[in-house]
Amino acid sequence: MRIESPAFRNEDTIPVKYTCDGDDVSPALRWFDPPPNVKGFVLIMEDPDAPMGTFTHWILYNIPPSLSELPENIPKRPEVQGIGMQGVNDFGRIGYGGPCPPKTHPPHRYYFRLYALDSMLNLKPGAGLSEVKRAMNGHVIAEAYVMGRYGRRR
Q1: Is the pLDDT of residue 24 over 70?
Q2: What DSSP state is assigned to residue 16?
Q3: pTM for the whole thing?
Q4: Residue 32: closest CA among 5, 1, 7
Q5: What was the pLDDT predicted at 153?
Q6: How far is Cα 46 from Cα 112, in angstroms, rounded to an integer?
């Protein structure tokens, strides 16, 4: 399985549009070659370079197995019809929160990790990362990521 974004190449700079310095909308993503027995997907976006440890920017779960892409600008609601459920990020909000590293830092890395699961998660909308990871435990059958970088002008 692999994942990519039409907005940026793997390991390249994430355009300002998708950050706190721009429109702060989620980028489009698409994936290929999921396992044939996938029952649902989870997408987690994290910054491992954050000053206080890994920072979670986006949690999207119970993505239907029929999907192979996400459009740009997923609404920041707990449940998005036909797309899935969203959790609470480390900004304390539902949905996508774009890159926003401190201006004093070099560019950070942002990983968009897609997990293929053998079941949907028995969670309500608005779950936190620990709940989602606990529910995923033992159900991940494949995973892939695309990584983008972003740094703010000093």
Answers
A1: yes
A2: G
A3: 0.97
A4: 1
A5: 75
A6: 7
Residue 59 forms beta bridges with which residues? Answer: 44
CATH number for the domain that contains residue 126? 3.90.280.10
- Is pLDDT at 120 greater than 90 in this prediction? yes
Instruction: Provide the domain count of the chain.
Output: 1
Separation CA 80–CA 68 (nearest Å): 16
Integer Rg of the chain from CA: 15
Rounded to 5 degrees, φ, ψ at 110 are -125, 115
Indicate the SS3 state at residue 3: strand
pLDDT class for 154, splitting at 50, 70, 90?
Answer: low
Q: H-helix or E-strand containing 102?
A: none
| Residue numbers of the domain that contains 143 | 2-150
Greatest alpha-carbon pair distance for the chain in Å reads 47
Calpha distance 68→72 (Å, rounded): 13
